[in-house]
Automatic annotation (TrEMBL):
Keywords: 4Fe-4S, Iron, Iron-sulfur, Metal-binding, Oxidoreductase. This is Formate dehydrogenase. It is an enzyme of class 1 (oxidoreductase). One of its GO terms (molecular function) is formate dehydrogenase (NAD+) activity. The keyword S-adenosyl-L-methionine does not apply. SMART domains: Molybdop_Fe4S4. Its EC number is 1.17.1.9. The lineage of its organism: Bacteria, Bacillati, Actinomycetota, Actinomycetes, Mycobacteriales. The keyword Ribonucleoprotein does not apply. SUPFAM superfamilies: ADC-like, Formate dehydrogenase/DMSO reductase, domains 1-3. GO terms for cellular component: membrane. PROSITE patterns: 4FE4S_MOW_BIS_MGD. Residues 5-61 form the 4Fe-4S Mo/W bis-MGD-type domain.
Length: 748
């Protein structure tokens, strides 16, 4: 594995695209990286960030041994056996005294790694844990709630082929999120027959390529989207045949949109009414339309309503079930739980897609309520830094009876844990993500390890297996027949598996553990951690039999075998456009357009918006913008950045002048939650009254000379937990009322 001339396939782990890469190794250094042309989705594409991945693999914050916190707050190194037995005992004690449902799980995967989350489920079930969350509960749950009522699944646009692409609060030039994003955006921009519509208050790099840039005032997208949809209805631009055949509940929507005063709404969102009408007409005239909404609306006021209105643009115009349109898609493993909306035990916040809103986590802990969370497992996430109101989150995590963090690095969250478990990096183990969101061809990529685990670390599947073993919930003798069958091949294993689980349904509860313990040891090339994929492959083959066969896989075992043998990834489903209809979960296979609460909210727009800014906090701060050198909290070493090392506060020319600020000056940003200092970048891209800070900054790091550094502003030092969506509890990170003051240098 150390032959430097050889290129080893893997993937970039910095965003949900997970572009295929090939890597040359120099010892344990990822010395050369380029796009993998054999990867079925990315086809050789990467952005600037992938080439910097060695800063993730090799940096001074990597953990190398399990650690236990001493009463004085310092950490001591302990061995794995001690860590596993004390942690298992600790959680078992909590389960036995106050109940397993008081054990809360946060994380389970970042942008590149979802196998850990697949295995932790067995340990959590064995403990009787019920509540969980992750970052999707601070972005996508509102959209999920809308989607589940409209058609019951996640949709994706097919931008590569769309005549018109619409980006709402989404800057794919920087944030990517769909395959080969920059190439696709450039192709659209070059083609006079295609068009791009961008709704964003900032003149982003994506907006610069747009044919229609609807430069909304921050937080007013609901008015803009309602007006766009209203034009479709009022100018008879809807696809009536499509609506009659495939959509129910159209009339109440038509009525509500019919009542919208388009000129008035355009004025309320600050967009020229003629431009807005022209954009709506361009959508209506197109043979295909794809839409991408992201954090600019999902983390801003009216977020769930905006998700709903946004979907009107392609539903009313019939852009579903055809090339270049919007699609439901297959999933290799569901990212979201199913079931209706539950409630959290303390605050009664909505649990959508099985996820507790990130914004209420602190309140679910910091209380005397008997049902409060008492213990927590955090895996591959850094909530002490990434969740709103970091100060409250840190108080809450510190108040837990037991906090265990599984991470590769000593994070802000790990520093609050009773135990920290060091995971092998994503290049040191079998890994995969479940961000498999494309249609008609959907891909899955099991990455092979490039390196042995760093000394002292373990891959998550092994960590979770050891913890389940320590709980003693499975009698090892029951696994013997499965172990034997696994050595005889997948057919024998399949039979033995159904016999074993039929005889003892309790094995089904700890399924990933059973697969890892029995099938895992027979898998080649360090792929034991891929065992859980066997179950998922069976499920995919049962759920999409035709599409899996069309992709060349006869059945679940054939699919699993192909996954193991495809180190650059494979296509697991090939759908036909008409299959979109079968992917609708409603029995009548139609889109159910009416969501009564949201139509009520739509009617109420006529009297708004009411600004959240005030004399004290006159500026809208977008806290957490994606830029060329941000990558969530994945890179801790600030040395990975070639530019924007401080994570500049971008402000408009007008605000800079009023505040007496110039490029490079220092400014103090104050919000109701906190205050921080940043370097200023005066930018013609910003509207007056709007400022932006990047995400992923303010992470602690110890420099080579031993000094502590944390460049830039930790965005959640400035955000409040109560600023959140009424339906989904998702935060308004892009819309934080703030004050900016020049920091006058102190002269000696
Ligand atoms: N470089 C980089 N890429 C990433 C990531 C990263 O950290 N760095 N993270 C990944 C992750 S986890 C995610 S979720 C995605 C997020 O991807 P995006 O959602 O594209 O990222 P953001 O830059 O946070 O926000 C998008 C846009 O919202 C705009 N915006 C702010 N306020 C408003 C508003 O009121 N209305 C509208 N319409 N727009 C508004 C901003 O100007 C910005 O251009 O990116 C992924 N890709
Ligand atoms: N103010 C503000 N806050 C935001 C956002 C914003 O725009 N503004 N964006 C939000 C969004 S969209 C997201 S997605 C979240 C992301 O926030 P988080 O959910 O905290 O996820 P990441 O930042 O991706 O952090 C991933 C963690 O996984 C660790 N890790 C990396 N590889 C491995 C591995 O192999 N195993 C294990 N166990 N750990 C590993 C990294 O060290 C890191 O600590 O932040 C959210 N927070
Ligand atoms: S950051 Fe995203 S788009 Fe860029 S190379 Fe990595 S996976 Fe691909
Ligand atoms: Mo995200």
């Amino acid at each position: 594995m150390t032959d430097t001339a050889e290129w080893h396939p893997s993937a970039c782990i910095l965003c949900e695209c997970n572009c295929g890469i090939v890597v040359q190794l120099d010892g344990r250094t990822l010395s050369k990286i380029r796009g993998d042309r054999s990867h079925p989705a990315s086809q050789g594409y990467t952005c600037n960030k992938a080439l910097r991945l060695d800063h993730y693999q090799n940096n001074r914050t990597r953990l190398t041994t399990p650690m236990r916190r001493r009463p004085d707050g310092s950490y001591e190194e302990i061995d794995w056996d001690t860590a596993i037995s004390e942690i298992a005992e600790g959680f078992a004690r909590i389960r036995d005294t106050v109940g397993g449902d008081k054990i809360f799980y946060y994380g389970g995967g970042g942008q590149g790694n979802h196998l850990g989350g697949a295995y932790s489920g067995a340990f959590l079930k064995a403990l009787g844990a019920r509540y969980r969350s992750n970052a999707l509960a601070q972005e996508k749950t509102g959209e999920f709630w809308v989607d589940s009522q409209l058609y019951g699944g996640h949709t994706r646009g097919e931008f590569e082929h769309a005549e018109v692409s619409v980006f709402v609060g989404k800057n794919p030039w920087m944030s990517q999120s769909f395959p080969r994003a920059r190439t696709v955006l450039q192709d659209i921009a070059k083609d006079p027959d295609r068009a791009m519509i961008v709704i964003d208050p900032v003149i982003t790099d994506t907006a610069k390529l747009a044919d229609f840039h609807l430069r909304v005032r921050p937080g007013t997208d609901a008015w803009c989207l309602a007006a766009l949809a209203a034009v479709l209805v009022q100018e008879n631009l809807c696809d009536e045949t499509f609506l009659a055949e495939h959509v129910t509940g159209t009339e109440p929507v038509r009525e509500a949109l019919g009542a919208v005063d388009v000129d008035d709404f355009a004025a309320r969102c600050g967009v020229d009414a003629d431009l807005l009408r022209a954009a709506a007409r361009r959508i209506a005239a197109a043979s295909s339309v794809s839409v991408f909404e992201d954090l600019g609306i999902q983390q801003a006021p009216n977020s769930t309503l905006c998700s709903y209105l946004n979907k009107m643009l392609w539903i009313l115009t019939g852009n579903f079930g055809k090339r270049g349109g919007q699609h439901l898609h297959s999933t290799f493993a569901p990212l979201f739980g199913t079931g209706g909306v539950g409630r959290t035990p303390v605050t009664g916040a909505p649990i959508i897609a099985g996820l507790v809103p990130s914004n209420v986590v602190a309140q679910e802990i910091l209380t005397d309520h008997p049902d409060r969370f008492r213990a927590m497992i955090v895996e591959s996430s850094n909530p002490a830094h990434s969740v709103a109101d970091s100060a409250a989150v840190r108080d809450a995590l510190s108040a837990l009876e037991l906090l265990v963090v599984v991470d590769v690095a000593m994070t802000e969250t790990a520093r609050l844990a009773h135990y920290v478990l060091p995971a092998a990096s994503q290049f040191e183990k079998a890994e995969a993500t479940f961000f498999n969101l494309e249609f008609p061809h959907n891909t899955f990529h099991l990455r092979h390890p490039l390196l042995q685990p760093a000394p002292g670390t373990l891959p998550e599947p092994e960590i979770w297996a050891r913890l389940v073993r320590a709980l003693g919930v499975v009698d090892d003798a029951e696994l013997q027949p499965l172990r034997r069958a696994a050595t005889e091949g997948l057919d024998a294993y399949t039979q033995a598996f159904f016999t074993a689980v039929g005889a003892n349904p309790a094995l089904g509860r700890v399924l990933p553990y059973v697969l890892y313990e029995t099938l895992g040891p027979t898998l080649p090339d360090g792929l034991a951690g891929a065992a859980a994929l066997w179950g998922l492959a069976q499920k995919a083959a049962l759920t999409y039999p035709e599409a899996v066969r069309r992709a060349g896989h006869a059945d679940g075992n054939a699919l699993f075998t192909a996954i193991l043998a495809s180190p650059s990834g494979l296509t697991f489903t090939k759908h036909q456009y008409a299959d979109d209809w079968d992917l609708i979960s409603h029995a009548d296979r139609r889109i159910a357009l009416t969501i009564p609460e949201l139509l009520e909210d739509l009617r109420a727009l006529a009297s708004g918006p009411s600004p959240l800014t005030s004399a004290e906090f006159p500026i809208v701060l977008s806290a957490g913008e994606r830029r060329a050198f941000t990558a969530n909290d994945i890179f801790r070493d600030p040395g990975w950045r070639k530019r924007d090392a401080d994570g500049a506060l971008r402000i408009s020319v007008q605000d800079a002048e009023a505040l007496g600020l110039a490029d490079g000056d220092r400014a103090r940003i104050t919000t109701s939650a906190g205050s921080a200092e940043a370097s200023v970048e005066v930018s013609a891209a910003m509207l007056p009254g709007h400022a932006a800070l990047p995400n992923g900054f303010g992470l602690d790091f110890v420099a080579a000379d031993g000094s502590a550094v944390a460049p830039g502003v930790a965005p959640n030092a400035l955000t409040s937990a109560d600023w959140r969506d009424a339906y989904a509890g998702t935060p308004w990170h892009k819309h934080v009322p703030a004050r900016i003051d020049a920091v006058v240098p102190v002269r000696a």
